[in-house]
Structure formats: structure tokens, C-alpha cells
Amino acid sequence: MLELDGITAGYDRRAPVLSGLSLAVADGEAVGLLGPSGCGKSTVARVAALLHRPYAGTVRLAGQPVHGFRFRAPRSQRTSVGLVFQQPRLAADPRMTLRQLIAAPAHATGRGDELASHVDELATRVGLTGDLLARRPHQVSDGQLQRACVARALLLTPRLLICDEMTAMLDASTTAALVAVVEEYRAAHGAALLAVGHDRVLLRRWCDRVLDFPGTPAAGHPDRVPAPSGGHSNRSASEPTARPSTSSTTQVKTS
Ligand SMILES: Nc1ncnc2c1ncn2[C@@H]1O[C@H](COP(=O)(O)OP(=O)(O)OP(=O)(O)O)[C@@H](O)[C@H]1O
């Protein structure tokens, strides 16, 4: 579904953040991308979501090479990817109500009427009902706003979801609820997932495969809780239960 091949990208050509990075996410697969703060995870997410043009390398979505990024990205490719950012407040227009925020991709693609009932259905699915939908971002909590952002990312039924530290600002129960929403969606639609983060335990529980950025401390690093091996006996009720912990961890390929 997603192929990044030899991606060099960043904010200064002389010192790119990513150099020759390659990774692939198969149709329906969930891949975690793990790395410390500042290593370039969000940059990978933005390139994969067609929001940031790489200096070199190829991005393919569903086998088709991407030739345009940001406003030059073809609509069919842009709408095949749903993106949830780490900080919902930076990703939400403060003038919009949560209902308008969820519906924004439908209006942007001229499908406002067609998808109106889907907005309500998704709002219910992420746990937002009643007066919350009429409130603006400053009138809701971070967790409630992130729920709206997840609903917005699912509205156009993307084939690939990119979650860039989606749960970094959330408590355990909201994390579990939103991971469950994403997994229900993936189960229903066969969508692929690229989940970016620094929580090895969460990513190993959530994803089929976890890739390490070069230089990321290994699972046994003293600063990190070792990932569970095999069963789920140490999982608390509030932790995500969406997928079996069958993932392995490998190093992401860079040149
Ligand atoms: N718009 C920008 N302009 C210049 N430099 C940037 C910009 N965005 C990010 N950077 C720099 O690029 C590097 C990688 O940033 P990125 O946000 O991809 O890292 P990250 O791994 O997602 O970090 P975190 O886990 O803290 O969110 C950092 O050194 C950052 O300072």
C-alpha cells in the first residue's frame, strides 16, 4: 500500500533529516515506526501523507508513484491516506465546531451532503455525541479533540492510516479507545496502518511489525520497558487490546 524507496528529506538540503530511507507497508498491514524524539519520525509521516516533498526517492501508494506533494498531490492519492497528528490543537481549526472539523474532508472534496450521516456515525464511534459536537476546540479536552481528529481521518475511508504519535498526549483509557477505533476500522475496511511513536510496548502490541530508526535503543534498554514476549498476561484492562502481540522489531533501512 505504501512504499518509500530511498527517501532523502528534511528542511535543509545540506543536512537532510532522512537519508535514503526505505520502508514498505503492505495492504492491510500495521507497521510501527519507532525512534527517539527528533530522529525524523514525523518527517516520514508527512512524506508518506504527501504533505512534504522529499529531495530524492520515490513514494508509491497502492503501486502508483506519487508525482505531486501537498496541493499538487492528485486528489485520489491524497484522499487514500488518513493522517492523525500528535497534537490535535495544532491540527484543528479553532473556528470550527467538532462536527465541522470531522466533516471538513467531505466539504473539501465536494461530498458534504453525501457524507453527512457518516459524520454522525463516526462521531458516535469515537465517543463524541450531543453537545460536544457543537463545541469548538477550546471548549473540549485534548482527548475529545483527538477523538474528533481520528473521526476526520476516517471520513473518506482511507486505505492507509498514518498515526503520528496519535496517543502521545492521551491517558490510558483514551489511548485504548482510539486504538480500538482504528483497529475496528482496519478490520472492516482492510486498511493499512503506519503508526509512528516512541512507545515500544504500545507499538508492539498494536502492530504486525515494528521498525526501529537507526540509533534507537533496543528493546532491552534500561530506559524502556521490555516488550512482552508472546502472551498478554501483563496487559492491563485499559491497554489496547486490538491486535495480538506477534510483532517483531527490525531496523528501518537507510542507505
Ligand atoms: N519545519 C521544520 N523546519 C526545520 N526543521 C524542522 C522542521 N520540522 C522538524 N524539523 C527538524 O527535523 C528533525 C526531525 O523532526 P521530526 O519532527 O521529524 O522528528 P520526530 O522524530 O517526529 O520527533 P518527536 O518524536 O519529538 O515528534 C528535528 O531535528 C527537527 O528539529
Note down, in words, how this protein is organized.
By secondary structure, the protein is of the alpha/beta class. The chain has two domains: 173 residues, P-loop containing nucleotide triphosphate hydrolases (Rossmann fold), CATH 3.40.50.300; 62 residues. Helices cover 28% and strands 20% of the residues. The protein is built from seven helices and ten strands. Strands 6-7-8-3-9-10 form a six-stranded parallel sheet, sandwiched between helices. A four-stranded antiparallel sheet has the order 2-1-4-5. It is globular, with a radius of gyration of 18 Å. The two termini are 22 Å apart. About 11% of the residues have low confidence. Bound molecules: adenosine-5'-triphosphate.
Reconstruct the topology from this structure.
Elements: E1 2-9, E2 18-25, E3 30-34, H1 41-48, E4 56-61, E5 64-65, H2 75-78, E6 81-84, H3 98-108, H4 116-125, H5 142-154, E7 160-164, H6 172-189, E8 192-197, H7 200-206, E9 209-212, E10 248-251
Parallel strand pairs: 3-8, 3-9, 6-7, 7-8, 9-10
Antiparallel strand pairs: 1-2, 1-4, 4-5
Helix pairs in contact: 3-4, 3-5, 4-5, 5-6
Bound molecules: adenosine-5'-triphosphate.
